[in-house]
Design a protein that fits this description.
Layout lengths: L2 H11 L17 H15 L4 H16 L4 H13 L9 H10 L4 H13 L3 H14 L4 H13 L3 H14 L20
Helix pairs in contact: 1-6, 1-8, 2-3, 5-6, 6-7, 6-8, 7-8, 8-9
Length: 189
C-alpha cells in the first residue's frame, strides 16, 4: 500500500465516530454531544459539495476525539500528541490501556485500528474496525479504512462493499477515487 493510502487511512481513522440514532450514546459523550452528532450526520449525508462535507466531517471528528469525560479526553489527547510523526503507531501500549479502561469508547478501538494499519498489521486493524463499528456504526473513517485494507489486499468486492457503506454516510470521501466504477459524488442542490 502506498504512503499516500496509509496517510489517508490514518487521517480518516483518527476522526471521531458518530452515534446512530436510537443507539445508546457512546461512552464519553454527553447527551448534548450525541444530539449534536445526530444533527451533523444528517447534514453530512445531505452535503452538496466536498468542502461542506469536509467541514462537517471535521466537526464530527472533533466530538469523537474530545469526549466530555475529562479523564478520557486527556488520555486521548496524550495518545494523539505523544506519538509525534509516528502518530498512534508508536502508542499501542497507551491505546491498549485506554481500551482496557474504556472498552465502550469507539474511538479507542479506532485509534488502535489506525496504529495496526500503520504497522502493516491489516488483520489486527480489521478486527479493531469491527469493534469500532460495533460501537459506532456510522464511523465513516473505519468503513473507508476497511475499504483501503481490502483494496490493498486485492479483495475488490469487499473493498467496494465497504466504501459503499462509507459513502452512504459521507458521500464525498476522497477514497471514492479508488473506485471509478462508483462514479462521481451525487449532484445535490
Amino acid at each position: 500500500m502506498s504512503t499516500l493510502h496509509r496517510l489517508v487511512f490514518a487521517a480518516l481513522l483518527l476522526a471521531p465516530a458518530p452515534i446512530t440514532p436510537g443507539l445508546a450514546q457512546s461512552y464519553g459523550q454527553s447527551e448534548a454531544q450525541s444530539a449534536q452528532l445526530d444533527v451533523l450526520f444528517d447534514q453530512l449525508s445531505a452535503a452538496t459539495d466536498a468542502q461542506t462535507a469536509r467541514t462537517i466531517a471535521n466537526d464530527i471528528w472533533q466530538i469523537w476525539i474530545r469526549p466530555d469525560d475529562p479523564v478520557l479526553a486527556a488520555r486521548v489527547a496524550e495518545i494523539m500528541s505523544a506519538g509525534g510523526f509516528a502518530g498512534p503507531a508508536s502508542q499501542i501500549p497507551l491505546i491498549d490501556a485506554l481500551i482496557a479502561d474504556y472498552p465502550d469508547y469507539a474511538e479507542g478501538w479506532n485509534l488502535r485500528a489506525t496504529a495496526h494499519f500503520l504497522n502493516g498489521a491489516y488483520e489486527q486493524s480489521l478486527a479493531d474496525i469491527v469493534e469500532t463499528l460495533d460501537r459506532e456504526p456510522r464511523h465513516f473513517g473505519a468503513l473507508s479504512g476497511r475499504a483501503l485494507i481490502y483494496h490493498a489486499q486485492g479483495k475488490r468486492d469487499l473493498a467496494l462493499e465497504a466504501i459503499a457503506q462509507a459513502l452512504d454516510i459521507h458521500p464525498f470521501l476522497a477514497e471514492r477515487a479508488l473506485f471509478p466504477e462508483l462514479g462521481p459524488p451525487p449532484i445535490r442542490s
